[in-house]
Amino acid sequence: xxxxxxxxxxxxxxxxxxxxxxxxxxxxxxxxxxxxxxxxxxxxxxxxxxxxxxxxxxxxxxxxxxxxxxxxxxxxxxxxxxxxxxxxxxxxxxxxxxxxxxxxxxxxxxxxxxxxxxxxxxxxxxxxxxxxxxxxxxxxxxxxxxxxxxxxxxxxxxxxxxxxxxxxxxxxxxxxxxxxxxxxxxxxxxxxxxxxxxxxxxxxxxxxxxxxxxxxxxxxxxxxxxxxxxxxxxxxxxxxxxxxxxxxxxxxxxxxxxxxxxxxxxxxxxxxxxxxxxxxxxxxxxxxxxxxxxxxxxxxxxxxxxxxxxxxxxxxxxxxxxxxxxxxxxxxxxxxxxxxxxxxxxxxxxxxxxxxxxxxxxxxxxxxxxxxxxxxxxxxxxxxxxxxxxxxxxxxxxxxxxxxxxxxxxxxxxxxxxxxxxxxxxxxxxxxxxxxxxxxxxxxxxxxxxxxxxxxxxxxxxxxxxxxxxxxxxxxxxxxxxxxxxxxxxxxxxxxxxxxxxxxxxxxxxxxxxxxxxxxxxxxxxxxxxxxxxxxxxxxxxxxxxxxxxxxxx
Length: 554
Ligand code: NOJ
Fold this sequence. Notes:
Layout: E1 10-13, H1 29-34, H2 36-42, E2 46-49, E3 53-54, E4 66-70, H3 77-89, E5 93-98, H4 108-113, E6 127-128, E7 149-152, E8 157-160, H5 175-191, E9 195-198, H6 224-227, H7 233-243, E10 251-255, H8 261-268, E11 277-279, H9 301-314, E12 322-323, H10 333-337, H11 344-356, E13 361-365, H12 386-397, H13 402-412, H14 447-451, H15 457-470, H16 472-476, E14 478-482, E15 489-495, E16 499-506, E17 512-515, E18 524-528, E19 538-541, E20 546-552
Parallel strand pairs: 1-2, 1-13, 2-5, 5-9, 9-10, 10-11, 12-13
Antiparallel strand pairs: 3-4, 6-8, 7-8, 14-15, 15-16, 16-20, 17-19, 18-20
Helix pairs in contact: 11-15
1-deoxynojirimycin binds near residues 59, 62, 99, 163 and 200.
Family: Belongs to the glycosyl hydrolase 13 family.
Organism: Ligilactobacillus ruminis ATCC 25644
Keywords: Glycosidase, Hydrolase
């Protein structure tokens, strides 16, 4: 077994929105196959596909009705096999989403389970009796609003769902559930996939007794108290590793909500045989405010630097980081952490530099390599995502004006990441009306434009990805943050026996001064977003300038 995933860059594909080959308005697997040459040109090593299984799509595929079947909207199993084969021919690996904290309520397991207490699937989910007054078994809220419990008259019981009521939680305490999941994982791995991204895997073990959460926690996430990093989560993952993962040369990345860097070590320390890496959320929480994620708050660069540094330091010897700015649940990184107006291109390149030079495996979310920004939908009726739709209602009932809500949705809705990928003229995703509206920015920000412009974010990302292949220090060098008092420039060093890198990233829209450390005077510039030449002394960084300087140890 090798740890090829440490050297890889992963590209995330949101299949519904990537490329529609049969012109029904929904992206599909043949659409991905068509675009393999594009992905090869970018140079990515692994594709992570969001769920493509049969699903009623209440939560866009994170509600799986049949783990063994491909959603016909996306194609057939043969299409998927063809994708695997053609990607592998190009040395591109494929990982799938593994969603096993919960299923769809249309899954056969749940349909059986809800019928009664004495069938094979009765104990597959988390059922509890009502309290004496008929109310819910505990006070947990669910992520998409309302209680985490729904009552089923046939069983005269409630079932637990940490997400929508159509997403009942599986009962991992039940050995049979675990074995059923492992069998399904083997099926896909035997088919040739190269690993899994594991949806909310930190939530699979619930605290015994499902205790009430303290009253002061935000209702929609108070279940973290009894469900995140629960008492058996590591035991379950070690079992999964022993029974399945250790038999395959695969990448595993756990989505670990509510997990600290100390806890992440437990998930990713190779000696513990659990996961390759986890997705952390600390940097995603820096701009939360009064309405949690749905607040109009800007992050502070010093907080970002502290968080990223904490994770780099903690996992230095005992684990591995995954690195990301954006995914299908987050707004676009350029809007959130950069400047999506005048310096969109410069700041997108700067953010790419900061992330790709860190220690860990970088993830690129589709469109990030174009510097896509959040979507200026004209109307709130353009939103499709269950979370956004529920939130719009909640903010309306909190008395916010339509204008305020529009601004917040622009900054935070998951749909910012889910609009169709802008191909040729910006609308080349499909000849049909897409399932979700295009971004009106597509005319200026699209693949065709990017490929024809040598200064585009695309070519810069390609170079960042290539550097990883030619400079081992990017993979194994120790990370050291520098100048921690600087409020505009995020500056760090990477170092192994052969080489040192100095990474300089300005978060300022104004020019700022920066003093190069002596040992990097006039050394080679590996990459920079303003074509900077070797330099020394104090320099003036341009808006959102990024520079990587290399010094070979002689
Ligand atoms: C995390 C996924 O990324 C998100 O899209 C989904 O809504 C929840 N987990 C529930 O599966």
